[in-house]
TrEMBL record:
It is found in: Cytoplasm. Its main location: cytoplasm. 3-phosphoshikimate binds at K21, S22, R26, S166, Q168, D314, K341. Its EC number is 2.5.1.19. It comes from the Bacteria. This is 3-phosphoshikimate 1-carboxyvinyltransferase. NCBIfam families: aroA. It catalyses: 3-phosphoshikimate + phosphoenolpyruvate = 5-O-(1-carboxyvinyl)-3-phosphoshikimate + phosphate. PANTHER family: AROM/DEHYDROQUINATE SYNTHASE (PTHR21090), PENTAFUNCTIONAL AROM POLYPEPTIDE (PTHR21090:SF5). The gene is aroA. Monomer. Signal peptide: none annotated.
């Protein structure tokens, strides 16, 4: 769908962004393999999480979903049934990688596919450790790409030293050890998001974390529970940056997830000089959340790299836009993982922002961005990547003249009501 967008004279108001995507996926998956009923509030009814529901229904789990509430009749890990249909994960990397970890425990055969973007994303990072621990997996190019097929089995004690800081890899390996004889542990170069560890505990499992290593003992079962999903900080990020860079703006985002493995965007915006207020912090013992208010700010360029990268990996497209409005130079490095996201996000960010006249250069592991006085409306394309689409829509709000955005419906993957909420915050949608 082609959308036409224009500069706005300010964004003002307060809103609740949709539920966290990572937590919503896990709530459905863990609820499905738990014993008893799980209820979920604040679920993200985006395309990716609906793909997860669809896959677990195909394995015999009864799941009722209506808007942001879900009820799952868990079948226990041994109660999943062999799917007669192919499990289609759509656009969702989290669904396929975590589900492979779960399927490593089940003795039946399953076949997994996804959309054109998933077909290009590397799966060896998960299939290699699972194979190493004895799971039968095959797929295109020796198990690196979909279609994949898996037959799980009895697994033993296993330690994996992951070369990448990836919660999808860490989670897949940990989940593959749920029925193992002995302990499963994963060490990563930097700590990635820890929603799996936190939520497994909420389902009654014991998970140990020591430094950059997470581990669990096999033979544990999950017990159905209630999960409250906070707002997704990765979705809030679009309005945090919009509020900071669009003149005459003040936006309050309510109940945004503040898990410290995800708050790199807050640290970076504060270092860049953004005027942010964080209040009403709650939920410290499970998944913390808070209200965040942002006001129009003078930003300055900074260097972003190292351990903070996994804490803001999904926010780099919108941080790049913020950097076009920041004095001096912003350098983003150590972020080669961007190349294997829904699109190659180094290329898509750089090429699309250049169309607005931004001074941005791709590097091998990131980008270098210099301030641009006024972005110019352009003909842009989401490339089917939800986060690229939303970043471009915010860029359009700031740019002189008109911007067209092709494939704008990609935003429904993680933020089905993004354009409605953007409109709600516009006092006047006029060219300036
Ligand atoms: C996710 C982990 C991240 C992130 C993705 C969601 C998760 O991927 O980019 O959007 O829910 O575990 P990696 O773990 O591959 O970095």
């Amino acid at each position: 769908m082609l959308k036409t967008l224009r500069a706005v004279s300010g964004l003002q108001g307060s809103l609740r962004v949709p539920g966290d995507k990572s937590i919503s996926h896990r709530a459905v998956m863990f609820g499905s393999i738990a014993e008893g009923t799980t209820t979920v509030n604040g679920f993200l009814p985006g395309d990716d999480c609906l793909s997860t529901i669809d896959c677990f229904r195909k394995m015999g789990v009864s799941i009722e979903q209506s808007d942001d509430t879900v009820k799952i009749e868990g079948k226990g890990l041994d109660g999943l049934t062999e799917p007669s249909e192919i499990l289609d994960v759509g656009n969702s990397g989290t669904t396929i990688r975590l589900m492979l970890g779960i399927l490593a425990n089940t003795p039946f055969h399953a076949c997994l596919i996804g959309d054109a973007s998933i077909a290009k994303r590397p799966m060896k990072r998960v299939t290699a450790p699972l194979r190493e621990r004895g799971v039968a997996i095959d797929g295109r190019e020796d198990g690196n790409f979909v279609p994949l097929s898996i037959r799980g089995g009895n697994t033993q004690t296993y330690h994996y030293n992951s070369p990448v800081a990836s919660a999808q890899v860490k989670s897949a390996v940990l989940l593959s050890g749920l029925k193992a004889e002995g302990t499963t542990s994963v060490t990563e170069p930097y700590t990635s998001r820890d929603h799996t560890e936190r939520m497994l505990r909420a389902f009654g499992c014991e998970v140990q974390v020591s430094g950059k290593t997470a581990s669990l003992k096999g033979g544990q079962s999950l017990k159905g529970t209630h999960i409250e999903v906070p707002g997704d900080i990765s979705s809030a990020a679009f309005f945090l940056v919009a509020g900071a860079i669009i003149p005459n703006s003040e936006i309050t985002l309510k109940k945004v997830g503040m898990n410290s493995t995800r708050t790199g965007i807050i640290d970076v915006l504060q270092q860049m000089g953004a005027d942010l207020t964080i209040s009403a912090v709650e939920g410290e013992d499970s998944e913390p959340y808070a209200d965040i208010t942002v006001r129009t700010s003078e930003l300055k360029g900074i260097e972003i790299g190292g351990e903070i990268i996994p804490r803001l990996i999904d926010e780099i497209p919108i941080i790049a836009l913020a950097a076009t409005q920041a004095s001096g130079t912003t350098v983003i490095k150590d972020a080669a993982e961007l190349k294997v996201k829904e699109t190659n996000r180094i290329d898509t960010v750089v090429n699309e922002l250049k169309k607005f006249g931004a001074d941005i250069t791709a590097t091998a592991d990131g980008m270098i961005i210099k301030k641009t006085d006024r972005l110019q409306g352009a003909e842009t394309h989401s490339h089917g990547d939800h986060r690229i689409g939303m970043m471009l829509a915010i860029a359009a709000c700031l740019s002189e003249g008109e911007t067209s955005l092709s494939d704008s419906q990609a935003v429904t993957v993680s933020y089905p009501n993004f354009f409605e909420q953007l409109e709600q915050l516009q006092k006047e949608n006029i060219g300036v």
